[in-house]
Amino acid sequence: MRVFVTGASGGIGSAVVPELIAAGHEVLGLARSEASARAVTAAGATALRGDLDAPESLRAGAAQSDGVIHLAFGNDFTNFGKSVAEETRALETFGAALAGSGKPLVIASGTPAVPGRASTEQDPSPTDGPVGGRGRNALTVLDLADKGVRSVVVRLPRSVHARGERFGFASVLIEAARRTGASAYVGDGSQRWPAVHRLDAAQLFRLTLEQATPGTVAHAVADQGDTMRAIAETIGRHLGLPTKAVPAENFGFLGGIFGVDQPASSAWTRERFSWQPTHPSLLEDLEAGNYPT
Questions:
Q1: What's the pLDDT tens digit per position in 158-186?
Q2: What letter would DSSP give residue 119?
Q3: Mean pLDDT for the chain?
């Protein structure tokens, strides 16, 4: 299969591309810059220069491929709405380009929070609140199942991590600790965050691309939920900093997310796709130190 991947040189994409190639697929990776194009080429893929705001490049990538994995998303949390709007336009382009083709469109989204229990693949994506925009985009993609697209949403947990590299939302805690001199958590720190190693997540993206039926939701969750306090204490220990509770507002836009208990299950996903995470947990990777700057 020839697969068009957006975000091919990003934190998750740089793991998905070699996973696809190792399984015998050919990859066409969207590259915004020459540096990204070099990274995509070095990984064994073909680079297609373009941008999420350049719909002609997205249409070209989809037309040249047997399926699409959309991973690109802006990481500027000071302007989250702009990133959501950019994603919305990109998904509209892909939806129109793939309609009636039967080709897969696999996108990344986030696991939802369900009061009192771990969320499952059957729980709906949130359409209100801080991340409601991404939830609405996920629902739009699932609806493409009725338009001849093999649509799939892979929900990612709060921390997609790899030792010595980025740690997802845990990296926000690391950066805040370095800046303020204390490793912080919100409230009593008992709220749980799910996590997954990026290599395990990459494998699930490949499996859903190959096997999922239209309208599938999968959870790329290895660790159902580590407490925010345990994460902060591990970070503090390795940075030689104290751990303390702080108001949610200290984390700006993300504060409203950080204070929520949001464990997630992947039981259905594991059974459906025979997916078994094998790489280190978030706490194991954090315990190893070597945090990137």
A1: 999 999 898 999 999 999 999 999 999 99
A2: B
A3: 96
Does residue 98 carry a pLDDT above 80? yes
**Structure confidence at residue 239 as a pLDDT band (50, 70, 90):** very high
Closest CA to 222 of 111, 114, 74: 111
**What is d(CA 107, CA 16) in angstroms, rounded to the nearest whole number?**
12
Looking at the domain that runs over 164-195+223-264+279-287, which CATH code has it been given?
3.90.25
| Mean pLDDT computed over 72-98 | 90
Between the alpha carbon of residue 242 and those of residues 77, 233, 282, the distances in Å are 26, 8, 20
Rounded to whole angstroms, how far apart are CA atoms 119 and 113?
Answer: 6
State the amino acid at position 43 in one-letter form: A
Q: Is the pTM of this model over 0.85?
A: yes
Beta bridge partners, 86, equal none
Residues 2-158+197-219, CATH architecture: 3-Layer(aba) Sandwich (3.40)
Question: In the chain, where are the structural domains located?
Answer: 2-158+197-219, 164-195+223-264+279-287
CA pair distance 177, 244, nearest whole angstrom: 10
